[in-house]
Amino acid sequence: MEDRSHKVLLALVMLFLFAVIVLQYVCPGTECQLLRLRALSPAAVADPYRAEDETPARFVPRFNFSAGDLLRRVDFNIKGDDLIVFLHIQKTGGTTFGRHLVRNIQLEQPCECRAGQKKCTCHRPGKRETWLFSRFSTGWSCGLHADWTELTNCVPSVVDSKKEVRLRPSR
Q1: What's the pLDDT tens digit per position in 52-107?
Q2: Has residue 158 got a pLDDT over 50?
Q3: Which residues contact 83 (CB under 8 A, 6 or more apart)?
Q4: Which residue of 17, 42, 44, 114 has the fewest CB atoms within a 10 Å radius of its CB?
Q5: Angle 57-36-51 (CA atoms, 0-180°, nearest 5)?
């Protein structure tokens, strides 16, 4: 009888340890979000920049885009002066997306990519102007992994350098 009670006790202890190990994989933090009742309340979801321990946020967003801003539709005029500028943010799949832009985009005149070349030619229909500013179309014109500030200052001068001053669009 004692042997059987020891086996049952051992089985319960093993089950408890297994549950603790699984819980650590599911909820590795000190406070498990799955077990907190506040996680289900709307107040917990309202501010994604609020720290769990209620300390002031380290990151405060500078640009608060509304849902309308994010879901708006923009018509791209390839025959006009419209320009797509691809800002490559490292470690976010940017190389794959940049290749997709030059190889697979469905436009009136897509980019021409030749086998063995890293850069593709992305000219507007009937013109020798580019409609895409990215490392796969213009190369590293603004430097390696240029950020927003570098691109804002660099792109207009690089793209418009070949045009007469009176023909340059305001960007």
Answers
A1: 677 766 666 666 778 788 788 888 888 888 888 888 888 888 889 888 888 888 88
A2: yes
A3: 130, 131, 132, 133, 155, 159, 171
A4: 42
A5: 5
Phi-psi region of 65 (alpha: psi -120 to 50; beta: other; left: phi over 0): beta
Identify whether 92 is part of a domain: yes
| Residue 7 to residue 10: CA distance in whole angstroms | 5
Residue 4, in any domain of the structure: no
Per-residue pLDDT, 12: 92
Residues with a known catalytic role: 145
Q: How many domains does the chain fold into?
A: 1
- Whether 137 is in a domain gets the answer yes
Residue 25 within any structural domain of the chain: no
What integer is the mean pLDDT of 103-127?
A: 87
Q: Answer yes or no: pTM beyond 0.90.
A: no
Q: Are strands 84-85 and 132-133 parallel, antiparallel or unpaired?
A: parallel
Q: Sort 168 into a burial class: Cβ within 10 Å, 0-12 / 13-18 / 19+.
A: middle
Query: Which of 123, 116, 131, 153 minimizes the C-alpha distance to 86?
Result: 131
Q: How confident is the model at residue 37 (pLDDT cuts 50, 70, 90)?
A: very low
For the chain, the straight-line distance linking the first and the last C-alpha, in angstroms and rounded, comes to: 86
Domain that holds residue 83: 76-167
Lookup: tokens for 24:
């650590």
